[in-house]
Specification:
290 residues; mainly alpha
């Protein structure tokens, strides 16, 4: 090797060492989760959305309990026993109107978590800094799922506690260990992350705020109204929707219907929707805009 060759090799080695010194380390998954956590709470609108959503859901439930007590006229123990046996205290603990508000609010929050980044262009900067798109979206799914699960638990527990405290003024409230009470609380709490993941998946596919919100309303609210429980195929379709699964899980009194649905089937619907929408959100960004 000549002197010139040795000098060139030394220069190349020095350049390689220098490049290694300035290359940034690969982002770990927990770093991505921390970044998504910061992005979620950096938007003040998200905080207000959670607060207003919680107050609206709890307000619907407590207002129903308050009206029930206000117009309660029965004085005999038999009427109170019938009221509890028919499962009405649990129906008031988390009403259908409150569930509707919860689904709309959480699906909107889930959609905003990704649509907002597409609208501002932040998602391109993120994918440029971290080319592993699936890891970025998986971190976002983890953060949204964790936050909305805690939100759902707080709202469901608060609704149950406050409504039963109000009903206890007429001696018609039930404790948490009453048959079916815990199931109502858990089913209502988990409706929050299921709705949020649906909103995120639709936002990832559609990438437009108005169109995503419209799709959320169609799937969560309009489709359950369109399917009649009197026909087998329509009943099956209704059971396969998140709203239909929640209705079955909180139906402690087990009202007679033409095509009944099992509790295991309803829990399965929750799991399938959560896993499917999370998979769509994570995988759909891999090849788009390459």
């Amino acid at each position: 090797m000549t002197t010139t060759d040795r000098a060139a090799a030394a220069t190349t080695a020095t350049a390689t060492v220098g490049l290694a010194q300035v290359t940034e380390p690969r982002a770990r998954f927990r770093d991505l989760v921390a970044a998504e956590w910061i992005k979620l709470w950096s938007l003040r609108s998200n905080t207000w959305a959670f607060v207003i959503g919680a107050l609206a859901v709890i307000g619907f439930n407590v207002g129903t309990a308050w009206d029930t007590c206000r117009y309660w006229t029965a004085q005999d123990a038999g009427s109170r026993a019938d009221f509890v046996r028919d499962g009405i205290p649990l129906a008031i603990a988390f009403t259908a109107n409150a569930a509707m508000v919860l689904m709309l609010a959480l699906s909107a929050i889930g959609a905003t978590a990704i649509v907002g980044e597409y609208r501002t262009g932040m998602i391109r900067m993120t994918f440029t800094a971290v080319p592993a798109r699936r890891s970025v979206m998986a971190a976002k799914v983890c953060v949204v799922t964790a936050v909305t699960t805690v939100f759902g638990a707080v709202v469901a527990v608060a609704s149950f506690g406050l409504t039963q405290a109000v009903l206890s003024g007429r001696h018609i409230g039930v404790p948490i260990d009453h048959p079916g009470a815990l199931r109502v609380v858990v089913a209502s709490a988990l409706l929050a992350p299921v709705s949020a993941l649906l909103g995120m998946a639709l936002g990832t596919l559609i990438r437009h705020s108005a169109a995503t919100m419209t799709a959320n309303v169609v799937i969560l609210l309009l489709l359950p109204l369109a399917f009649s429980a009197d026909r087998h195929w329509a009943a099956v379709a209704d059971h396969a929707l998140p709203a239909g699964a929640w209705t079955r899980l909180v139906d402690v009194d087990q009202q007679q219907v033409a095509y009944p649905w099992t509790l295991t089937g309803a829990w399965t619907v929750y799991v399938v929707w959560a896993l499917a929408t999370a998979a769509v959100a994570v995988t759909s960004v891999q090849r788009r805009d390459q």
